[in-house]
Amino acid sequence: MGKPTIIAVGSITHAMRGQSELAKRGIISDIQRVSHLIPNRGCGYCLKVKQNGPQAVMVLKQAGIRILEVVDEE
After folding, report:
1. How far is residue 59's CA from residue 61's CA, in Å, rounded to a whole number?
2. CATH of the domain at 26
3. Rounded Cα–Cα distance for residues 29 and 36 (Å)
4. Is the Cβ–Cβ distance between 15 and 47 less than 8 Å?
5. What is the DSSP letter of 1?
6. Which of 42, 60, 69, 72 stands 20 to 30 A from 54 (CA)?
7. How far is residue 40's CA from residue 22's CA, in Å, rounded to a whole number?
8. Over the stretch 10-47, which tens digit does the pLDDT of each residue have?
9. What per-residue confidence (pLDDT) applies to 49?
10. What are the angstrom distances between the C-alpha of 38 and each of 10, 69, 74?
11. Which residues of 25-55 are buried (b: 16+ CB within 10 A; e: fewer)?
12. Where in the sequence is the domain holding 60, given as residue range(s)?
């Protein structure tokens, strides 16, 4: 199993929409505040996926959700 991937998005609305799009494709994600997960990002929200990170990013882009940053959790 790979490392979890953290995908920062611009708002809670985008995070909720993204979570729905990912769930349609069988990708489980959690919505979290970004401040403690990505230093220097400031406030905002992110989707944390435990696996299929690259696929999750692709799904979000195809759904028109703007991605601010993608980080593999250590």
Report:
1. 5
2. 3.30.70.1940
3. 17
4. yes
5. -
6. 42
7. 26
8. 899 999 999 999 999 999 999 998 866 666 656 789 99
9. 96
10. 13, 9, 11
11. eebebeeeebeeebeebeebbbbbbeebbee
12. 5-72
Q: Domains in the chain: how many in total?
A: 1
Q: How many Å apart are CA 40 and CA 71, to the nearest integer?
A: 13
Q: Which residue has the tokens 């929200």?
A: 45
Sorted by sequence, the CB contacts under 8 Å of residue 68 that are 6+ apart come out as 8, 9, 10, 41, 44
How far apart are the C-alpha atoms of 50 and 63, rounded to whole Å? 20
Q: Per the structure block, which two tokens stand in for 59? A: 């799904």
